[in-house]
Amino acid sequence: MVEQPWRKRVYPLLGLLTTAALIYLNFGVKFKLPVLWLSKMNFVTTNSTHFVIKDDDGINESTMYVNGWNSYWLLEESIWDDSRKRVTEMIRRGAQMGMTVCRTWAFSDGKNPSSLQISPGVFNEKVFQGLDFVIAEARRHKIRLILSLVNNLDAFGGKAQYVRWAKEAGANVTSLNDSFFSHPTVKDYYKNYIKAVVTRKNSLTGVKYSEEPAIFAWELMNEPRCISNSSAPVLQSWIIEMAAFTKSLDKNHLVTVGLEGFYGPKASKRSTINPGKWAGLLGLDFIPNSAVANIDFASVHAYPDSWIPEADMRQKADYLSHWVDSHVTDGDHVLKKPVLFTEVGSSLRVNKGVYNKDFLLKTVYNKIFESAKKGQAGAGALIWQLLVEGVEEHYGDQFSLIAWDHPSTYKLILEQSCRLRRIFDKGEPTRRLRHKDPCFGLKS
User: Fold this and answer.
1) 110-142: pLDDT as tens digits
2) How far is the C-alpha of 267 from the C-alpha of 191, rounded, in Å?
3) I want to staple 418 with a disulfide (CB 3.0 to 4.6 A). Which of 151, 225, 360, 439 is the partner?
4) Which residue among the candidates 76, 223, 260, 415 is catalytic per the annotation?
């Protein structure tokens, strides 16, 4: 048989593409990943109190309830080639547990080798390429990311670093870090940062962040607090301004605040839900903060071990139940938006064993499952936080764990992922191949 001329051209090309794909998948070598090889994903949006994903026709949509996790450290571990394998492993393991959303930091401000923003508007390209890698790996494993844009705390720079930069530039900034929310110079720094991130083109995939469906949402700040102004108008105005600015740059993605969920002093009927009087004096107010027009869903955290440390296990579980119920009710009847519990933490150290930690996590999981069955606003929960081997010492805290080292927790996470999905799959297997489906064969 005479070989066709086109085969001489096509076969070598296919071989080259296959080799390149294997190199990327196995070694994370930095080169542009052809769009043809990117996992097919559609953007998540909202329909009243639900997250939904539009089908390819753009008309039909499917409801999405979230089981996910936090690994704040992905960016820093993606900077260096020899540590990227830990990022890949974490994302792969998350997908193996049926989880669909990971929340992580998209910030690191200050002058050190791992800083993304070295000074206002000046970026370390190598670190930015690390964020590119996180997003590309998430896309490859069909994981969506909540990317937080700045820290309220001093870790990784945070709002304190922005205030220091403004002082160094000669701005008349008070010594209080809360001027982050009000001083024009600082707000301009932050807006420029948002613009740089949101409009970035991924060096590996060629896809702009604003057009990347593997990004679930932008989070304005991790746990914002404005303690110097307990009446909260300053923080409220900041949320309104920054949410609108982010949406002006990116209409594809959801935006959330990053709240812990505390009610303000004016919410007298709900203030009893707070873990203590201190929680109402942080410049926050869950309902007005979350009701801002350009905020697409409400975020809530839950840390009973830290918030009510003197309570026993039953009291903590009861508190969690009321905490979840209150915010889900607000989502349904007041906000008309989904409510996502973006950090749920319980301590192995305080609770003296995995069983008690699992008990608190299961309390939240059961509440989310009940909400999903009823079609309510409780849209999901993200455990704080998951690690892989080799990062425990640097990134671990009392709430962290390597899930596969704790079989009962691993099973609990997987079961939550699968039972949430079955509600909307009507018991049918996932569209993926069965042998790749973590839920296939798992009993309800």
Assistant:
1) 999 999 999 999 999 999 999 999 999 999 999
2) 31
3) 439
4) 223
